[in-house]
Automatic annotation (TrEMBL):
InterPro entries: Cell_wall_metabolism_enzyme (IPR050570), Dup_hybrid_motif (IPR011055), M23ase_b-sheet_dom (IPR016047), MGlyc_endo_b_GlcNAc-like_dom (IPR002901). One of its GO terms (molecular function) is amidase activity. This is Peptidoglycan DD-metalloendopeptidase family protein. PANTHER family: L-ALA--D-GLU ENDOPEPTIDASE, PEPTIDASE-RELATED. It comes from Listeria weihenstephanensis.
Length: 334
């Protein structure tokens, strides 16, 4: 009896201790990536995906939610699902059933001594997505083996039963059941830290200045520089990076007025570059781009009076614009 209790309870305690050491610092949903990203290497095998989810306990109906969160976080839904299945014993652990916590996230409010409680399972999956993004993209733990070395280190004092050795093979087995990985996260680069001019024939029509907005007539600080360009001419990535926003900047999105806009995150500089008023959107969130890649075509969408690229360099994801002209070495006349 005692032996049963020991084997049933202790592994769970040890797993939680291990998780506590890596989770809990990642609860900020605004946390952003510092490097890398994942590129699609083929679609998800939907029949394998659906068949595997039928055995996944309370996660059974959460396939679509996991895909949604994975897309938002630029990570592989297959890897996300495999880790969730592993951490929850196929969706049956007390943490996921009673606390809506599929990722073993610990509660900062209790000094990481208890598993965090989420109001809904969707909330728990969102939080797990942020943490996985940080481990995979920000910290560069971009293979199952590298993740395992952190999630379940082999030979550590808090794994006396040697269970951690199972983490990598078990997760890999679940990945195979789900139809195999659908993204490659290991080919990323931090970039050079040196931005190139993102258009071929740089003709600066407006600098980083206080001005009257040409569309609204309202005085403003122009937070980037404008390159007047031929319609549909190439827009190039200023450095290696990951697409963190790509779409029409509708009001309330934080990108209102920018029209079709892309925001890239750059690991080397820990900065973001923004490319506004594009004719359409050619890239997807989570996509890894290389310096000089054509990421869009010049347009005049959003608050714009003619075809141009509005380009920003940001110190923060949603602000902190600096003057790109001296960085790019271009002259501005106004
Ligand atoms: Zn502009």
């Amino acid at each position: 009896m005692v032996a049963i209790v020991v084997t049933a309870v202790f592994p769970l305690v040890f797993v939680l201790l291990i998780l506590a050491s890596i989770f809990g610092i990642d609860m900020d949903a605004d946390d952003v990536m510092d490097g890398g990203g994942c590129s699609p290497i083929g679609g998800v095998d939907m029949s394998a995906w659906d068949a595997t989810f039928t055995k996944a306990g309370v996660l059974k109906d959460k396939g679509d939610k996991i895909k949604e969160v994975a897309t938002k976080q630029g990570i592989d839904p297959i890897l996300f699902a495999a880790i969730a299945f592993n951490e929850t014993g196929w969706g049956t652990s007390r943490a996921v059933v009673e606390k809506n916590n599929p990722g073993g996230l610990m509660d900062a409010a209790t000094g990481m001594s208890t598993v965090k409680v989420f109001a809904t399972l969707d909330e728990g999956l969102e939080a797990m997505g942020v943490t996985l993004h940080n481990r995979i993209v920000k910290d560069g733990l971009n293979t199952v083996e590298k993740l395992g070395a952190v999630y379940a280190p082999i030979g550590v004092a808090n794994d006396p039963n040697g269970l951690n050795v199972n983490w990598v093979p078990t997760v890999n087995g679940m990945i195979q059941k789900l139809g195999g990985l659908s993204m490659n996260c290991s080919t990323t680069s931090a970039g050079t830290g040196q931005y190139i001019i993102p258009v071929d024939t740089p003709n600066v029509s407006s600098g980083f200045v206080d001005r009257i907005n040409p569309v609204t007539g309202v005085p403003e600080h122009h937070k980037g520089i404008d390159f007047a360009q031929p319609m549909l001419s190439n827009i190039k990535a200023a450095d290696d990076g990951v697409v963190v926003f790509a779409g029409m900047g509708v009001s309330g999105s934080g990108f209102g007025g920018y029209g079709n806009v892309i925001l890239l995150e750059h690991a080397k500089t820990k900065e973001w570059t923004l490319y506004g008023h594009q004719s359409g959107i050619l890239v997807k969130v989570g996509q890894v781009v290389r310096k000089g890649d054509v990421i869009g075509k010049v347009g005049s969408t959003g608050q714009s009076t003619g075809p141009h690229l509005h380009f920003e360099i940001r110190k923060e994801k949603m602000g902190g614009q600096i003057d790109p002209a001296p960085v790019l070495g271009v002259q501005t006349k106004n």
